[in-house]
Amino acid sequence: MRAGWLAAFFPLAALAAPWEFSPPVDLTTVSTKGVFHHVESAGRKSIAVAEGGVAVVWEDNHDGVSRCYLALKPAKASRFSAPMRVSRTHESFEPSVAAMGKGRYAVGWEEDGAAWVRVTDGVRLSPSLRLSREEAGQVSLARGPKEGLYAAWTEGAGRFRQVRAARIAVEGDHLGMDGSRPVDAAIPQDEQLYPSLAVTAEESVVVAWEDRREGHTRILYTYRNKDGSFANPAALNEIQRGQAAALGLGRGSGAMRVALAAEGEDGIAAAWSDKRDFLSGYDVYAAFSSDGGRSFGKNQPVQDSFGDSFAQWHPAIAAGPHGRVAVAWDDDRDGTSDIWLAWAEGGGWSENLALPGASGEGVQSDPALALDEDGNLHVAWVEKAGDGAPTRVRYLFGRSGKK
Amino acid sequence: MKLWRGVMFGVLMLLAPWVRADPPADYPFVSYDQGLVRAREEAKPVFLYFGRYGCAWCDKTNRESFSNPEIRQRYTEHYVLVYVDAEGGRRLKLPDGERITEAELGARFKAFATPLFVFLEPDGKVIVKIPGFKTVEDFRDFDRYVSEGHYKSRTLLQFLGGKS
Predict the structure, then answer these.
(1) Using beta carbons and an 8 Å cutoff, which residues of A are at the interface with B?
(2) In CATH, what class is A2-239+248-400?
(3) d(CA B75, CA A328)
(4) Cα–Cα distance between A69 and A92 in angstroms, integer?
(5) Predicted confidence (pLDDT) per residue in B51-68, tens digit
(6) The CATH number of the domain where B154 resides is what?
């Protein structure tokens, strides 16, 4: 409602978005009773674009078992393909996708308590490669600049989950893991969860994740050294010490579900859910690195003052050409859950835009987004008429207004 | 030196549940999906505690309120006790068959602040949601409101305004 009011009285604000949005399209049919769609993955990497093509992955249980699916729109095609199952035969979750070029996409997922990856062109599926030996999941993928693929995931290491990463060699339909190592060489002292991986054009490999070693959840990050080892982890989210800390209560504020995107030659953009302001729930914070993840600048709040007193959920981030970076999430500041968008500008973040076609009546949530080589925006999300109503996965295209 | 380190480690491990704001000690908390199954079987309401790892006000609630023997007895007897880590990645199965993570359950319950306490009917229907630190007296009142059935005719505010 507020977005509509703003557009009516401040049309320039509504026009300031650097994209012109097309009507949304459905990637799935509306589910029947007992069927649920989830656009969810470590780093929210559920959509990938390259060379005019788009791939979206999700999990649903329409055949009675939770499995992972992909819909593909090849370059120059006018519509998406019918959903194609990309997981194997058992219950599977949290698919992640990365564009490999030449119409091929890599998909990672959790199945049977293991982390898997395979490549597809939307017609053929390569054999699956198991990434893990112990209980594992939460796979995040990113393509390297030299046709390599990188994966990060969580895997059991004693009492706790640990983030591991590997380079995956891809030759046709053959996938091979080129070593696998923990991103933190130290034995885990507590849980490490939900990694996100990004690889820059300079082939800086950066991993960020949730880490509980300090007794509360922090976002840590590291980068890969030239010898393949990873640097000592550093904290990405800043901590506000409040009254509770002074009283010796708890360990600190929460943060979760970090998402990374590679930007320009050696830049990394990060966004995550952050609870430093405990009264209004999770906010979205972001930070930038211009040195391939060696260091990050100050944390920046992404939601505007209208959204500040509402909880934001499910932040996703994308980066494109010319320094364009966008973040999407859902919040219910207008009464129902809508997809909101902000983009980096002037050293900060734009006013928030309720995404046309992904806002208004009903519940729109769980966005994933990508920016293509021309700066066009691609967004996928889950929609339902209301709480408990049937779900569907939708997609929306935003044509870049700036070349 | 080694002995001293061992003793310190043991003390820290004993303190860990309090400091990290996991569920309070000595309460039979179970997972959300297990709890809803048990609630239906036993026809008992659910007391759902959304906590967060390291949460200060959960820590305070555990130390000052849930440590009270009367509260422990009331809540253990009257409810199926469910604890959810609002940032957790553990996957749950909802009564309608949907599989979601603990964090996603938190988003759906709009657990914007922790602790968040939710009383549920045995079928999972929300009776009342109560955010933030609460005292022993508060928890005693909440228990009376739910276990004595006052919620069927009055809001919690009406009940608290008229309590004797």
Answers:
(1) 34, 36, 38, 40, 61, 66, 93, 138, 193-194, 210, 212, 214-217, 242, 244-245, 247, 249-254, 256-257, 275, 278-282, 311, 313-314, 387-388
(2) mainly beta
(3) 41
(4) 10
(5) 999 998 999 999 999 999
(6) 3.40.30.10
